[in-house]
Design brief:
This protein is of the alpha/beta class. Helices cover 34% and strands 20% of the residues.
């Protein structure tokens, strides 16, 4: 199939991407997959091996560090808007998960587990060489960040959970996993726009330009399929579906071990972070929890809205009001940086 129908899409997306040109450094480190995270691999094939991990690195190298990690199908570029707003006050590092974006793939589909992602985050922190830092995790990234914060309380200063708690309703998780595990081939920009629009309907009110920017970074051209495909290893999403079908997400015991302040961002139309889960989180006497409710938004807020990014920045600097608040929607974003 001719690629000419994609020419205007590519040109417009590239021009949007140039708004961030020079705003961040591209970083990479070799992630080492240990044999303990290969339990389902035949013993004769089990061995440590390295694969590259990509990250975008914003702001001064000596500024307070915030590491951002996305959901199961997200790429690091999803955090560009947040990072651009925070870069004058923070160093913001946004990582692609293994099997997503520009990071390498794992050798066996059984290795795509939350335990592997926790280890990936642990190795990124070791690579960055900071004793203390803050974490921001969206959806699956929040689950991984929560586990690491419980395991390394002396290293994590503050934790931002973007529309995720210690559990997710099982039916919702399975339904989402079934959708993500499908292999999509987009043979026209219109087809891609319809799918991305449906997938991002819960992200909150965002412009068509932002949707186009995200669609470009989340997909790549595939000669073999004659269209654009998602920029991830399909086995990673199949592994996530298998996990969602076989087990529940239950991190309540880990939640009791959190000792750093936590900011919980709640999309008020979310079906993943329910009022019952928020209430139970608030009953833990040892967790310093603040909750920010975001209107007209489901799971998960994109964090391109400047009121949301300013709320996060203030809270990270200890200026945010503790307790519970609402974050009204800002005017549409016209200047991205």
């Amino acid at each position: 199939m001719s690629t000419s129908i994609w020419t205007a899409f590519e040109q417009q997306a590239w021009q949007l991407d140039q708004r961030f040109a020079g705003g961040y450094r591209s970083g990479c480190f070799d992630y080492l997959q240990p044999t303990r995270l290969q339990p389902q691999v035949p013993a004769r094939l089990r061995r440590p091996y390295a694969t590259p991990v990509f990250y975008a690195d914003w702001g001064p190298l000596d500024a307070p560090l915030l590491v951002c990690i996305g959901g199961v199908a997200n790429t690091a570029m999803r955090f560009n808007f947040l990072a651009a707003d925070l870069q004058e006050r923070f160093r913001v590092v946004c990582m692609d998960w293994l099997g997503r974006g520009r990071s390498g793939w794992l050798a066996d589909d059984s290795e795509y587990t939350r335990a592997t992602y926790v280890e990936q985050l642990r190795q990124l922190i070791a690579h960055l060489g900071r004793r203390r830092l803050s974490l921001l995790g969206s959806s699956m990234g929040g689950s991984v960040a929560l586990e690491l914060a419980a395991d390394l309380p002396q290293r994590i200063e503050r934790l931002v959970l973007n529309d995720v708690g210690p559990s997710i309703p099982a039916a919702r998780r399975r339904r989402r996993a079934d959708t993500l595990a499908r292999f999509y081939v987009f043979r026209s920009p219109e087809e891609l726009a319809r799918r991305i629009g449906a997938a991002q309907k819960n992200d909150g009110p965002i412009s068509d330009e932002i949707r186009l920017f995200l669609a470009w970074h989340q997909t790549r051209w595939s000669d073999e399929n004659g269209g654009r495909v998602y920029r991830h290893d399909p086995r990673a999403l199949l592994a996530y579906r298998r996990e969602a079908q076989e087990s529940r997400l239950d991190q309540w015991a880990l939640w009791q071990r959190i000792r750093c302040p936590v900011l919980l961002l709640h999309g008020m139309q979310s079906d993943a972070l329910t009022p019952a889960i928020i209430a139970r989180m608030g009953r833990s006497p040892l967790v310093d929890l603040s909750v920010a409710h975001i209107p007209d938004t489901g799971h998960t807020p994109l964090l391109s809205d400047r009121n949301q990014t300013h709320c996060i920045a203030d809270w990270l600097q200890g200026r945010g009001s503790p307790g519970e608040c609402s974050v009204p929607l800002a005017a549409p974003r016209t200047v991205w940086r």
